[in-house]
Design a protein that fits this description.
Layout lengths: L15 E3 L6 H7 L5 E7 L5 E6 L2 H8 L2 H6 L4 H9 L4 E8 L5 H12 L20 H15 L12 H10 L6 E5 L4 E5 L2 H8 L3 H9 L10 E5 L1
Antiparallel strand pairs: 1-4, 2-3, 2-4, 5-6, 5-7
Helix pairs in contact: 1-2, 7-9, 8-9
Length: 229
Amino acid sequence: MKNNNSIVPLPIVPEKSYPNAATDKVQILLENNNKSGVYAWLNLINGKLYIGSAQNLRTRFRDYFNANYLKKVYYMNISKALLKYGYPKFSLLILEYCKVEYLLKREKDFMDLLSPKYNISQEPSSPMLGRKHSDETRAKMSSSIKASRKGNPNYLAREWSEESRLKISLSHPKSKQVEVIDVQTNTSTFYNSFNSAGKACNISHQTISQYIIKGQQTPYKKRYIFKLL
């Protein structure tokens, strides 16, 4: 990999380095349009790293430079850090440009090598692994689920097996709650029905049902992971 003004003592040489994310913003967006690869945010104050990957780096970086987006995904450590320290205190590194089909593997390789402190999970294919919901969030989720079960006299008298619940979700996909994990944006969204989740992802609710029924683990279209609640 070539060195482009590398400024950090890492055991690798990034393909590109942007020493000041604030002053280099325009250059970052121009040079990474329609390029896929693995990147890292480096906190110049404490040396902590965040590693991620994207099919279109410019689109991903544009989100990072949007304060409203950072507030929306405030559960992410890197979002908190960028808002706290500001862009001038961060360098943005392009660890490697690579083809889309190799993104998750190379992201994992760099995570294993560099042990980024800002990453919630060290598993790129499961970005929400290790994330703990707050008590308030868990309470809201529990109340929502309980509300959907209210009025079912057979529920408390019967313990549904995983197989039974999956069959029900296949038969009545529109009424089942689902969690959608977007591995590109590292976000998790909860929907009250497969239908609403499908509309948000621009796919059919039948596709989501089949994904869950088959117990698939790899992201659908290399982007979405669906989980039945």
